[in-house]
């Protein structure tokens, strides 16, 4: 039987609806949640992501501000902009669109964002809180992927989870979230030997590699939940890391690209922004 589709369009629409209700409740109490996105340069992929984020804000009633900065700016200019947004009471979430141009130090810039306004969950404090099981802001893509995994209703206790990719923004936080769900977690990466022996054991397989067609049917366990985080462009068409047509014949559940995890990333950004505004109102 072919895999069931985990539909990011449907799932994210439901989340956006809940966000819109929470935004309306905050507005009733005199607070409009605000998100600021800093876009440095004009990378075409980043332009699309930023536009989608702005549309998500518009749809849910979140105030959004896009700050465009020239490709050639210096580190001090970027950090001064972040500090200005830290002080701005109309802004509850700050996001610096990555990647940044090569002359800029990404980690140093992210460290300037107030942890409570870090709606990406990339600040060291939030990364550390995730690691130690504390209450911080969780990175949007892994948070969205976990929502999709949970939606299958599978008991995750003791399940084998394999994450391919060890980035700070997807692979590592994804592994931590699955560990908190009591999965037995393996992180695979470019130096992993005999990748297939690992992936074939996975009840939950998450791919965040960035290579089209990387995960093939022979790498997947029968009935597995397969989450495709990849966003690749082949001949102008967007596709994920997973050979969807082949893998859907083996997996139990699968996310499509487009219309999968990407939609959830934006939905979770809106959730993180509304939560930041709710915390502000509660005085936390
Ligand atoms: N670039 C690609 N994905 C992301 C993301 O989730 N957040 C930010 N800030 N930049 C990105």
Describe the fold and architecture.
The chain is an alpha/beta fold. It has two domains: about 30-115, 3-Layer(aba) Sandwich (Rossmann fold), CATH 3.40.50.10860; about 140-260, NAD(P)-binding Rossmann-like Domain (Rossmann fold, 3-Layer(aba) Sandwich). The chain contains ten helices and eleven strands. The chain has a six-stranded parallel beta sheet with strand order 1-11-8-7-5-6. Strands 3-2-4 form a three-stranded parallel beta sheet, with helices on both faces. A two-stranded antiparallel ribbon has the order 9-10. Helix 7 links the parallel strand 5 and strand 6. Helix 2 (about 45-60) crosses helix 10 (about 260-280). The chain is globular. The model has no long low-confidence stretch (mean pLDDT about 95). Bound molecules: guanine.
CATH architecture of the largest domain: 3-Layer(aba) Sandwich
Count up the helices.
10
Mean pLDDT, all residues: 97
Sheet with the most strands, sense and barrel status? 6 strands, parallel
Count up the domains: 2
CATH class of the largest domain: Alpha Beta
What fraction, in percent, of the residue positions are helical?
40-55%
What is the CA-based Rg, rounded? 19 Å
Note the overall shape.
globular
Question: Which homologous superfamily in CATH is the superfamily of the largest domain?
Answer: NAD(P)-binding Rossmann-like Domain
Under CATH, the topology of the largest domain can be stated as: Rossmann fold
Distance between the termini: 49 Å
